[in-house]
Amino acid sequence: MSKHNWLIRPSQLGLLMTKGRGTEFGETSMELIRECARFYKYGIEPETVTSKYLEKGILNERDGMELAKDVFKWDIDIDAPKHRITNDYLTGEPDVNQSILADIKCSFMAKSFHKVFFDDDVKNKSYLFQMNAYMFLTGHDQCELVYCLTNTPEHIIADEIQKTTYKLLKQPKYTEMGMEDAFSVAETDAEQIIFSQHRFGKIPKEKRVKRFIVKRDDVIIEQICDRIDKAREMFDQIYKAI
Predict the structure, then answer these.
(1) I need a surface site. Which of 77, 103, 209, 221 has the fewest CB within 10 A?
(2) Between the CA of residue 167 and those of 12, 153, 170, what are the distances in Å?
(3) Same domain, 32 and 86
C-alpha cells in the first residue's frame, strides 16, 4: 500500500492521465507527480502558472453562473459557499453542487467560445475526466459542463489595448505621423478592436451559453482510480529518492 495517498484535484486529471510513447507516464504527468512529491516532502510550492485566459476564467466564474442560472432557469443559490469534498482518490470543489452539479468555463473571446458552440458533445477529454471526477466525489449521475461568453474584466481589456496599440504602431499607415499623434490614433483604433472582441452585450444571452450534459461513466471513473493508484506508486519512488 502507498505510504503517501496524496489526493488529486479533478482539474489535474488532464495532466495525470497523459501517457508517454511506450511508457506509463509521459513527461507531463511525471512533472505533476514530481512537483507533488517536492511539496509533500519539503513544502516546495509548485510554480504558479497563470495567463489571461485562466485569470478571466477565475474572475468571471460568478458572472458565468449568473448567466447560466438565468438562461437555464437553475433553482440554485449562486452565493452558497463552496464545500471541499474528498474521497480516497480525489479532492475538489465543484462550481455548483446543489440540485444540480455543474462546472462553468468562461471563454476568453467569442472565437474560442464558438469553437465549442456548434459541437454536439464534449471534445476536450480532460473535461470528461474532470466531470466524472466531480460525479465520483458527489454521487451525482450527471454533470453540466457550461461554456459562457462573458465580458472581459476591465484590467485585462486595458492590457490588451496596450499590446494591440504597439502592434498597430508597426503598420505603415502610422509611420508618417509624429510619435505622439501615431500613438493616440493607434490607441483609439486598438480600443475599438479590443472592445469589439471582449464586450458581448449585443449578443442575446441565450446565444452566450453552451451546455453539455455529461453522464456518469463508471468505466472512466475506474480508469481514474487505476491511474491514481499507479501514480501513487511512482510518487512513493520519487518521494524516497529526493
Answers:
(1) 77
(2) 35, 21, 6
(3) yes
Per-residue confidence at 174, pLDDT binned at 50, 70, 90? confident
Shared domain for 163 and 192, answered yes or no, is: yes
Name the CA dihedral angle for 228, 229, 234, 238, rounded to a multiple of 10 degrees.
80
**In contact, 92 and 120? CB cutoff 8 Å:** no
Other CB atoms within 10 A of residue 54 CB: 11
Is this prediction's pTM over 0.85? yes
Q: Which domain holds residue 179?
A: 154-197
In whole angstroms, give the CA distance from residue 11 to residue 91: 10
pLDDT of residue 50: 86
Taking CB atoms within 8 Å and a gap of at least 24, the contacts of 33-39 are 33/231, 33/234, 33/235, 33/238, 34/238, 36/6, 36/235, 37/235, 37/238, 37/239, 37/242, 38/242
- Grid cell for residue 242: 529526493
Residue the block writes with cell 485569470: 55
Q: What is the pLDDT of residue 1?
A: 44
